[in-house]
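Re: the multi-chain job from yesterday

Posting the exact lines I submitted so nobody has to dig through the queue logs.
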Amino acid sequence: AQSVTQLDSQVPVFEEAPVELRCNYSSSVSVYLFWYVQYPNQGLQLLLKYLSGSTLVKGINGFEAEFNKSQTSFHLRKPSVHISDTAEYFCAVRAQGGSEKLVFGKGTKLTVNP
Amino acid sequence: NAGVTQTPKFQVLKTGQSMTLQCAQDMNHEYMSWYRQDPGMGLRLIHYSVGAGITDQGEVPNGYNVSRSTTEDFPLRLLSAAPSQTSVYFCASSTTGNQPQHFGDGTRLSIL
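And the result, structure tokens for all chains:
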């Protein structure tokens, strides 16, 4: 079975500052990794995904994430955040070659202050 | 292309009432799933389906039933609503393999 730990439940930052949202996973098999964003009162949108290949993945809205197999991590980064990035961010994992079931972390609320 | 459509968007029920949350997708996706989202808990899988006629339990299936008679629709039934089922419910779909899931906008359910 897979599990996901998002190490910070809340991250406050100032506008134009860099941000890193941390995600660690546990799995006995190879996995696919995803980051989703949820704006207030909305559903989830895919930010980026790691399937295979390059460990640095670029997504929408200037976000990127790096897959580190040895540390079982998939941290999300943005070099300069905007007020509009205020949202909740979810890391998710799915086993390769097995069930399509997606396991989510508990989420990190990013608040960008002026 | 509507994607994943959930109805209703909001619902208030009394304890013991039954209701069905509707989910429809127009992308011909084989895989569909239901999640509930509670504060500080992330999204937890209730039930899922890998194709018409095939369903299976997720992490928190108790109190919920599903069926999948067509590729497009995957309704979630609450047989006897309880206050612990107050939550936001999301339906999602995807093709099989490594493709990401597409989510609906959610149904906010309150049970009094």
